[in-house]
Amino acid sequence: MNFLSHFYFERKNTNDYIVMGVVLPDLIKNADKNWNLNPQKDEYLFRDVPEYDALLKGWKRHLEVDRIFHSSNFFKEQTAILKQMILPAVETGPVKAFFLAHIGLELILDHLLLTQDIVDTDIFYSQLQASRSEGLTGFLRLAGLPDQRRFDKFLDEFIKSRYLFSYAKIENITYSLNRICMRLWTEPFQQEQLDILTSQLEEFKQQLQNNFLTIFHEVGKELNKNK
């Protein structure tokens, strides 16, 4: 799941550090795809400081949400549907349809949460900003972050740009997918392919928008079972 989808499960949580923790794994990977942190493997390091404990709690929540989501029938069925729909956009070039469908589904879920006002994205950004403290820095130091200055610069820009608001437009979902693919391939798409992708994402969104909350309810029930 993507940023707003993870935030959905903490949208009523007033602990800013838990909210930061639930999106921190993705923030780390967006800052540098080669960074691999696993603080959940050394929980004892984070027990004595409330901010560290809250960040770790959020981090583990992120991992559990992704595990449940990616093993769900919803994920398997909807990625299969989207894969077939976007095949015309990947007939040529290096991008694999399943890879694109996987990420595309997650971004469309964020789009729907945003456009249907199910999560308050302003509050999301406010809570991220509120957690920018020595507590976050200390947690990342213990977790083995390779370059704190570089991550700080990325996080500051992420919060300042409020980029997730751009997901309100489907063409910006296409833009994001293209940017993600450009991390792996020099020229993943031609403009004609991007136009096809936008059209197919819009059609997929129309099909999904009336029942997409079922997966959030399903994941939520599983989370409650595991408390």
Written overview of the protein:
The chain has 227 residues and is mainly alpha-helical. The protein has one domain (3-225). It contains eleven helices and no strands. It has helices at 3-8, 16-31, 50-70, 73-86, 97-115, 121-130, 134-143, 148-161, 170-182, 191-208, 213-225. The longest helix has 21 residues, at 50-70. The mean pLDDT is 96. It comes from Pedobacter westerhofensis. This is Acyl carrier protein phosphodiesterase. Pfam families: ACP_PD (PF04336).
The average pLDDT is 96
Q: What are the low-pLDDT stretches, counting only 5+ consecutive residues below 50?
A: none
Q: Shape, please?
A: globular
Strand content: under 5%
Q: Helical region count?
A: 11
Structural class: mainly alpha
- Main sheet specs: none
Residue share in helices? 55-70%
Q: Give the total of domains.
A: 1
Number of strands: 0
Question: How far apart are the termini?
Answer: 20 Å
> Secondary-structure element order, as H and E?
HHHHHHHHHHH
Q: What is the rounded Rg?
A: 18 Å
Summarize the structure.
By secondary structure, this protein is an all-alpha fold. The chain has one domain (3-225).
Main traits of this protein?
227 residues; mainly alpha; single chain; 68% helix
Please specify the SSE layout and strand pairing.
Layout: H1 3-8, H2 16-31, H3 50-70, H4 73-86, H5 97-115, H6 121-130, H7 134-143, H8 148-161, H9 170-182, H10 191-208, H11 213-225
Helix pairs in contact: 2-3, 2-6, 2-8, 3-7, 3-11, 4-5, 4-10, 5-9, 9-10
